[in-house]
Write a structure and sequence with these properties.
Blueprint (H helix, E strand, L loop, with lengths): L1 H18 L5 H23 L3 H9 L5 H13 L2 H40 L12 H11 L6 H9 L4 H20 L1
Helix pairs in contact: 1-2, 1-3, 2-3, 2-5, 4-5, 6-8, 7-8
Length: about 180
């Protein structure tokens, strides 16, 4: 049954790609990858497997292999103008696919962070106006008194870049040391 769910992602992508063919390849590839990413996010939650399993299997049927082949064949033949045309067209298709996948992933990640912040009871409406460092400092001050704060710091660290991650991991280490002293 699991394999059927994986294959269904590819079917969804191909149907979306074919149904939007008249709107141009950029829109059809963007929409198809968006549909695959949404399907992957939903099915990953249901079956409790990583999202990438559904996303990779679903995206395979719409990879623009013909464009890659034509670009390489024209390059081999020495026709630079056709190579450039086919190559750029293929890059645009791949770029549209990547944008669809990234958009879905970013939205899902944004909701995960919001849920985590609510779990750690530090949801602050002013967060949009703060810089990342100020926001992280406010987070660390807000949950320092909680019993599970070291766990929250580590979980939050996975959502931030290097500087923010280091700050949160340092706070987590301080909380562990503080808990060991008491």
């Amino acid at each position: 049954m699991f394999f059927l769910h994986l294959l269904l992602g590819g079917v969804v992508a191909r149907l979306m790609l074919n149904s939007l063919d008249g709107y141009g390849y950029m829109i059809s590839f963007f929409s198809a990858s968006l549909a695959v990413a949404i399907y992957g996010e939903m099915m990953a939650r249901i079956s409790k497997v990583p999202v990438m399993i559904y996303t990779i299997i679903g995206i395979l049927p719409i990879i623009p292999g013909r464009g890659i082949y034509k670009a390489m064949a024209t390059l081999y033949q020495g026709d630079i103008n056709s190579f450039t045309t086919y190559g750029l067209e293929t890059l645009e298709m791949v770029g549209a696919m990547v944008m669809g996948l990234m958009l879905t992933s970013s939205i899902v990640r944004m909701f995960k962070i919001r849920k985590l912040l609510k779990k750690c009871s530090i949801w602050n409406k002013r967060r949009k106006t703060m810089r990342q460092g100020e926001f992280l400092h406010k987070i660390c001050e807000s949950i320092a008194d909680e019993l599970y704060s070291a766990e929250c710091f580590r979980e939050l660290a996975s959502y931030f870049t290097n500087e923010g991650r280091e700050l949160l991991l340092n706070y987590a280490q301080e909380e562990v040391e503080h808990a060991e002293k008491n």
